[in-house]
Amino acid sequence: MKEPLSRGARMAVLSAAFGGLLFDGFELGLMPLASLSVSQDLLGAGYTATLGGDWFARYTAALMLGAAIGGIALGSLGDRIGRARAMGVSILFYSVFAGLGAWVHTQEQMLGLRFLVGLGVGGVWPNAVALVAESWPDKARPLVAGLMGAAINAGILLLSQVAQIWSVTAADWRWLFHLAAAPAALGLIVLFFLPESRTWLAARHQPGREKKTAPLRELFQPALLKITLVGIMLGSVPLIGAWAASKWMIPWADKIGGVVQTDYKALTQGWWAFGAILGSLTGAQIASLLGRRRSYFLISLGSLVLTVAMFQFTAPLRPSFFPVVFAQGFVATLFFGWLPLYLPELFPTHVRATGSGISYNVGRFATAAGVLAAGVFFTALGGSYPAVGTAAALIYGLGMFAIWFAPETAKRSLNPGTKS
Q: Which domains does the chain have, with CATH numbers?
């Protein structure tokens, strides 16, 4: 076993991973905030509110499809060339292709770029989570897992604050995509300078390791198949719920509140993201206190209730809207503190990034399909955001069932040689 990372190196790993995921969240929040403005500009006189909602669904689906492929492919790359290198490549992917969005002239060009952005968005998460989990002592993992979950939502909150200062409108939205290219500098630093996981390095040099089956193939062989399927189920529910249900609140807020207040959508995203940051920080702590299975069940139940409440018992511009949005953001993102703690515990070191990537990102295939289906329902329901959001929220009921097939992993150590 190689010597564990120094405290300074661990802090560098944590900071870089947090930054990579923070800008990941910036990318995830970009099109919910900007999609209607982009469509209004690019479609011109052909724009309608229903068509704007339909294109929002397409943009979201393209990003999710790219993230699903990127999370699996670049997660597997992390098990082959190292977590730090693969994370750097992923950051460069989402930064460069997001920046190119500033020069598009058609909806189809933007659609293609959102897919390419998604490749990087999906690749950052499994590598960042595996790298941090393997670099910090077991007793610190609930805290750092919470930070990993909070990072994405901190990026969404950052975006909402920027958009309150500089409005995103049909006449002025391209600046946002220029800004989204800035994290490329972080990608280069991570790629060339960030220290690698000592646990991965040690596993890489185990005798006979080079003769083993490729990580992606090994996960679907009998020894790991059940674990892989459980991980996929548990990773899919929060993602489908977040993108097929709660993210419809932003264009809904824009349609109703934007008539009165141009930054109303940014305020809505800010309230949600503030709750989401607190939820992501708290999710791993709750999992440690209540156990992995019981906590996931309760989070699923709370997410179902609050998402339905958000779409059925309040509405944009009502006094209760922002408090309910905040509460839904808090509870529905407890998952994203829970997942960085639990998923690395499911898999052995040599397939940890691939396994975490598959578990987290296969759900994005379902999310892409779910969002497209929601887009069809949205049109069929006459452009009713509450109706489509409520229907999509039912996915959380599946989480209440799926968790009882999962093993309890609280006592598993990922890096026994690491000291605090």
A: 7-191+215-405 (1.20.1250.20)
